[in-house]
């Protein structure tokens, strides 16, 4: 992951000169500074990055599942709407690997568009055959408790199905690829150069709404991060840390009825992960309207400004909120 720099140096001519001709001093061109290597999913500088793949883990987000374990160490967390209008997380780990992650739950069809661009495995409890097949068809390796893969365990402190956890190192050891992921977003060199900081409007908080949950994000200038809450209550990890991120990206998305059915016979909602739509990018206590686009399931999301330039995020962690255009909303508090 080290990026080599080219050093260009000029040299003096070795040809003889005529008597009386003034000597010309050799010109030296300064070497081009070497680019600082960074973690691909956070843009944070790293001295010696370990060559390992990213791993995505499906994590429950209900009252019975909170506080979750390991979310505070994810590079990227995607929040998606599932049955009943509640949400689940797809948490992506690469630069940091917590010992344990969970509670782990089942796959959904939109996970293909989240995991496929990463190139690494998706960890799940299981899932409907229809959804398992669609995610595998996108080229995603599934590591599943129901399939008998190693690394999972049940906690005696909670009731099933909210008690399935995974040992991340053991789960990751089963990955079929070893290459690190490509960058999923564009990052500024420093937080002060993030697009929202340079061109956005001040904001103190974001208030989001899904049909059955209303997460929020409040800017903490001292911490230099957005801090998450669940309906006004601080969202904390099992370790007692308030969940936070340097960037919050809100994507307004279409949600359609999939061919799968839940236990009551209703259609399982599917977030459409390709196409284009409105977005809102929050970094550094400021927000910037943007446009998201994604040509295929295998391609990362692209964020662009009104002028068509790539949006540069602050180096650090990012939470992506997949908010339905017809059953959700976002309010910005100044």
From TrEMBL:
<feature type="region of interest" description="Disordered">
    <location>
        <begin position="13"/>
        <end position="34"/>
    </location>
</feature>
<dbReference type="InterPro" id="IPR023158">
    <property type="entry name" value="YerB-like_sf"/>
</dbReference>
<feature type="compositionally biased region" description="Low complexity">
    <location>
        <begin position="21"/>
        <end position="34"/>
    </location>
</feature>
<protein>
    <submittedName>
        <fullName>DUF3048 domain-containing protein</fullName>
    </submittedName>
</protein>
<feature type="domain" description="DUF3048">
    <location>
        <begin position="41"/>
        <end position="176"/>
    </location>
</feature>
<feature type="domain" description="DUF3048">
    <location>
        <begin position="209"/>
        <end position="320"/>
    </location>
</feature>
<dbReference type="InterPro" id="IPR021416">
    <property type="entry name" value="DUF3048_N"/>
</dbReference>
<dbReference type="Pfam" id="PF11258">
    <property type="entry name" value="DUF3048"/>
</dbReference>
<dbReference type="Pfam" id="PF17479">
    <property type="entry name" value="DUF3048_C"/>
</dbReference>
<dbReference type="InterPro" id="IPR035328">
    <property type="entry name" value="DUF3048_C"/>
</dbReference>
């Amino acid at each position: 992951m080290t990026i080599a720099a080219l050093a260009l140096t000029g040299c003096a001519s070795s040809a003889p000169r005529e008597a009386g001709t003034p000597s010309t001093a050799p010109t030296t061109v300064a070497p081009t500074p070497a680019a600082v290597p960074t973690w691909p999913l956070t843009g944070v500088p790293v001295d010696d990055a370990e060559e390992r793949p990213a791993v995505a883990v499906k994590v429950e987000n209900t009252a019975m599942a909170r506080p979750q374990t390991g979310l505070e160490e994810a590079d990227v967390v995607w929040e998606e709407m599932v049955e009943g209008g509640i949400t689940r997380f797809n948490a992506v780990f690469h630069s940091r690997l917590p010992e344990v992650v969970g509670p782990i739950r089942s796959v959904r069809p939109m996970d293909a568009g989240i995991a496929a661009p990463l190139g690494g495995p998706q960890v799940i409890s299981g899932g409907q055959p229809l959804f398992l097949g669609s995610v595998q068809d996108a080229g995603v390796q599934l590591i599943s408790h129901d399939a008998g893969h190693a690394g999972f365990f049940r906690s005696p402190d909670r009731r099933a199905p909210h008690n399935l956890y995974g040992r991340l190192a053991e789960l990751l050891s089963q990955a079929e690829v070893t290459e690190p992921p490509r960058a999923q977003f564009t990052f500024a060199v420093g937080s002060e150069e993030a697009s929202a900081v340079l061109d956005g409007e001040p904001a103190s908080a974001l208030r989001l709404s899904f049909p059955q949950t209303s997460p929020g994000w409040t800017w903490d200038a001292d911490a230099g991060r957005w801090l998450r809450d669940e309906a006004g209550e601080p969202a904390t990890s099992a370790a007692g840390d308030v969940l936070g991120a340097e960037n919050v990206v809100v994507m307004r998305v279409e949600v359609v009825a999939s061919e799968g059915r839940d236990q009551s016979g209703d259609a399982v909602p599917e977030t459409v992960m390709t196409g284009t739509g409105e977005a809102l990018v929050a970094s550094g206590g400021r927000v910037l309207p943007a446009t998201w686009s994604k040509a295929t399931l295998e391609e990362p999301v692209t964020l662009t400004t009104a002028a068509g330039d790539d949006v540069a995020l602050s180096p650090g962690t990012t939470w992506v909120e997949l908010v339905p255009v017809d059953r959700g909303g976002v309010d910005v508090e100044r």
